[in-house]
C-alpha cells in the first residue's frame, strides 16, 4: 500500500531539482503523475522537453504511471492544457503541486523591469494559472454531486517569508504565494479542496551558486538533498491529511510551522490622530527587530 495509491497529481517544474524528487516519491507511493517542465535555464530563458521526459522515463522504468507536459505554467492556455492532461490521461486530478520557479536576483537599485516581471510572472502567475483551472474543475465536480478530496501544495520561500536582501522580486512573489495559499484554502474548502505551502531549502541548480550550508558535503545524512523535501509534500497530498491553510519551512529532517502575518500590538485614541500624537505613541516601534533568522 502506498500513501498516494489512486491519487492523480500534477507537479509543475518536475523535470529537475525538488519537483523531480516529488514526482519520483509520488510515483513510488502509488500516484499517477503529470510531470510538467518547460525545461528552461535557471533564469527562465529557453525551453527543452528532455527534463520532463527523462523523469517520465524514470517513473515508467520503476513500474509507475506518468505522462509529460512541457507547457509554460504561467501561460493561460498552457495551464489549462496542463490540468486537462491529467483529466484526459488519467480521468481526474486530486493533487496540484505548484513548484516550478526561476531566479533573477538583483539589488533593488539595479533591478530591471524585465527581471522583475519575469520572476513575478513565473512564480505568482505560474501558481495562479494552474490553480485557477484546477479550481474550476473541482468546483464543477462538487456542484455535480461528486465527492472531491483534493490538495494543492504551493512553493513559497524563506527569501520572501523571512525577507532576503537581493531578492525583492522573488521574495515578493514567494510571500504573495503564501498569502495566495491561505486565501484559496478559504475559498475552496467548501468544494473539498485543501491548500498548503512549503518553503523548502535544498541544494539544486538554483541554490548551488549561493554556496553556504547547503553546499557542504557532510558525511551521513545529507540535509541539503532535495529528496528530503518531498515526504512533507506527499503527506500534504494524502487523501486523509487534515492540514489546510498552513505554510511550512522544510529542510533536511526538519519541518517548521509558520504563522502568517498577525497583529501583535496597537496604539489607539478615540479621535483622529494628530501627527505629533502618533509620533509620541508609535516611535516605540522603531526599536523592534523581528526574528527572521533561517533555522538551518
Ligand atoms: N532549492 C531551494 O533551496 C529552494 C528554496 C526556496 C524555494 N525554492 C523553490 O522551489 C521550487 C523548485 O526549485 P528548485 O530549487 O528545484 O529549482 P530547479 O531549477 O532545479 O527546478 C525548477 C524547475 O522549474 C522549471 N520551470 C521554470 N519555469 C517554468 C515554467 N514557466 N513552466 C514550467 N516549468 C518551469 C525549470 O525548468 C526547472 O526544471 C521553486 O519554486 C523555487 O523557487 C527552492
Descriptive report:
The protein is of the alpha/beta class and 296 residues long. It has a single domain (8-263), classed as Rossmann fold (3-Layer(aba) Sandwich). The protein is built from 8 helices and 8 strands. A hairpin with a 2-residue loop joins β7 (247-251) and β8 (254-257).
Low-pLDDT parts are none
Shape: globular
Spatial ordering of strands, largest sheet: 3-2-1-4-5-6-7-8
Distance between the termini: 34 Å
* Quaternary organization: single chain
Helix-residue proportion: 25-40%
Q: Any idea of the CATH topology?
A: Rossmann fold
Strand count: 8
The CATH top-level class label: Alpha Beta
CATH superfamily heading: NAD(P)-binding Rossmann-like Domain
Q: Give the helix tally.
A: 8
Total domains:
1
The CATH architecture name reads: 3-Layer(aba) Sandwich
Q: Please identify the structural class as seen in this structure.
A: alpha/beta
Amino acid at each position: 500500500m502506498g500513501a498516494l495509491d489512486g491519487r492523480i497529481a500534477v507537479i509543475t517544474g518536475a523535470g529537475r531539482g525538488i519537483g523531480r524528487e516529488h514526482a519520483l516519491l509520488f510515483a513510488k507511493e502509488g500516484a499517477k503523475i503529470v510531470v510538467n517542465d518547460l525545461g528552461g535555464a535557471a533564469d527562465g530563458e529557453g525551453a527543452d522537453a528532455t527534463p520532463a521526459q527523462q523523469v517520465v522515463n524514470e517513473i515508467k522504468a520503476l513500474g509507475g504511471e506518468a505522462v509529460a507536459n512541457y507547457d509554460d505554467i504561467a501561460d493561460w492556455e498552457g495551464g489549462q492544457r496542463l490540468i486537462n492532461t491529467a483529466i484526459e490521461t488519467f480521468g481526474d486530478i486530486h493533487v496540484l503541486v505548484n513548484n516550478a520557479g526561476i531566479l533573477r536576483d538583483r539589488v533593488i537599485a539595479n533591478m530591471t523591469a524585465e527581471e522583475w516581471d519575469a520572476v513575478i510572472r513565473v512564480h505568482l502567475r505560474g501558481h495562479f494559472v494552474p490553480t485557477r483551472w484546477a479550481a474550476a474543475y473541482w468546483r464543477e465536480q462538487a456542484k455535480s454531486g461528486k465527492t472531491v478530496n483534493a490538495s494543492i501544495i504551493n512553493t513559497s520561500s524563506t527569501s520572501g517569508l523571512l525577507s532576503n536582501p537581493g531578492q525583492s522580486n522573488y521574495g515578493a512573489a514567494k510571500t504573495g504565494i503564501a498569502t495566495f495559499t491561505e486565501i484559496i484554502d478559504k475559498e475552496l474548502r467548501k468544494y473539498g479542496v485543501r491548500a498548503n505551502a512549503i518553503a523548502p531549502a535544498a541544494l539544486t541548480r538554483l541554490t548551488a551558486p549561493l554556496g553556504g550550508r547547503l553546499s557542504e558535503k557532510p558525511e551521513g545524512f545529507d540535509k541539503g538533498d532535495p529528496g528530503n523535501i518531498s515526504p512533507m509534500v506527499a503527506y500534504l497530498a494524502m487523501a486523509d491529511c487534515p492540514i489546510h491553510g498552513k505554510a511550512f519551512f522544510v529542510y533536511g529532517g526538519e519541518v517548521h510551522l509558520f504563522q502568517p502575518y498577525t497583529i501583535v500590538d496597537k496604539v489607539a485614541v478615540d479621535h483622529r490622530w494628530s501627527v505629533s500624537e502618533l509620533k509620541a505613541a508609535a516611535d516605540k516601534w522603531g526599536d523592534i527587530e523581528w526574528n527572521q533568522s533561517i533555522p538551518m
